[in-house]
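Appendix B, Record 12. Input sequence as logged:
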Amino acid sequence: MSVEPRKKRLNKKDAYKYMTRLGWDPTYQKEEDVYPYLKMEGIKVHDWEAWEDPFRMTMDSYWKLQAEKDKKLYSIIDAFAQNNGQKNITDARYVNALKIFLTAVTPLEHKVVSGFTNVARAFKGEGASIACQMQAIDELRHYQTQVHTISHYNKYFDGFHDYRTIHDRLWYLSVPKSFGDDASTAGPFEFMVSIGFAFEFVLTSLLFVPFMSGAAYNGDMATVTFGFSAQSDESRHMTLGLQAVKFILEQDADNVPIVQEWMEKWLWRGYRLLSIVSMMMDYMLPNSPTSWKEAVELYIEQNGVALFKDLEKYGIKMPEDMIKTIRAEKEHLSHQLWKTFYVHSTAEAIHTWLPDENKMNWLSEKYPNTFDKYYRPVFDEYKKHADKGERYYSETLPCLCQTCQVPLVFTDIEGGKPNVFTHYQNEYNGERFHFCSPGCQDIFEKQPEKFVQAWLPPHQIFQGNCGGATIPEVLKWYKIEHGVDNMDYVGSPDEVMWNKFKNN
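Logged structural output:
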């Protein structure tokens, strides 16, 4: 009796290849017409089959995994809402940190959905395209979850009511908006470096891990659950981002200087974007588990630097000057930004307040070299005025950096002048542009035609494009209700609501 030879079983790598490599080479259309963006950035790809997906996840397994995660996540979110979980947070001041996080990140997540969808269409390789499609769906899921969180807190606290409008118009939310606009108007390879690598791999941990720890320390279990659910996606996103960079670098030596420039640009842009997180961690959490300084030391000085060292074998160089600036600023960043937000809270959709004695003692402990010397005296002076009923509110807005759109509030720490503001300028086509740092100035100089188009809220107000020339007119255009959504926390409707919660 003859027996047919048994067919050799495919290994997992080959099986995944056959399930996902479903594309084809164009025949009756030119390749450059089908994939018009592949060569616009100067990146050379010789072999799309060299793309490796370490997770080797198929769409079938992806849907099952995400469905199970959503089932668990929404059951906890529903339980949080039904049991009035907002009453179990430490203090309503904490909600203002959520206001910044949710109104800044939620629209940015939606923009990233579009970005990865476009990149999935632009890439020729099926492996890379499928990985980008999955990440686009991940980001859509994150966006939807955050909207659910907004809808719950909006029932009880002010400042969540029109997050899409304020994201497009409000001065401090122009920082994440400009980051997203810059990334989404780049080519597909730069987009992968900006989001897939710089934000997801280098900077996500600086946002998600400390902030979600802060949520746990302050009783916000709904946000903690979302953080855990999202972070499992982020691990795959980080791998995709690193894989994209390695893939580009391995394809051709001519790609190295292009990627080097992108990595430096997006590391700096991402760091400036997350500067607002510094004051959220240090000042806006009633219980702060980690200082901004400690987070920078772990996630940038250790993890980020180690990553650049791993890429040295491809020819990538450590951005030494950039890392040096980040190291110097970690002692000052959160204090300088909180001072700025405190005095400009007339034009904000959050409440601000002065740190109490316990918080200032904690800051003294975490920042022994700087807080008592430079910043405690400032807050003590603000308190003297507030106690006399003269709480200070600026009637102007700060000058914003043309590139990152963060206010020009940073000081010359590296030059040994921590009391002197840094301010850099360029002239281009007869106009003067302002920058917060050499990093932002350098980014502008390399792409001036892109950044001269930046929509800067203070400039637009002065040009009469924001509802009128007076503060009430501008606030109405912002859709901010004066005395309700803004100003000091003490005496605000949020504080009244919170006291009612605690007394019932």
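Residues 221-251 form the longest helix (31 residues).
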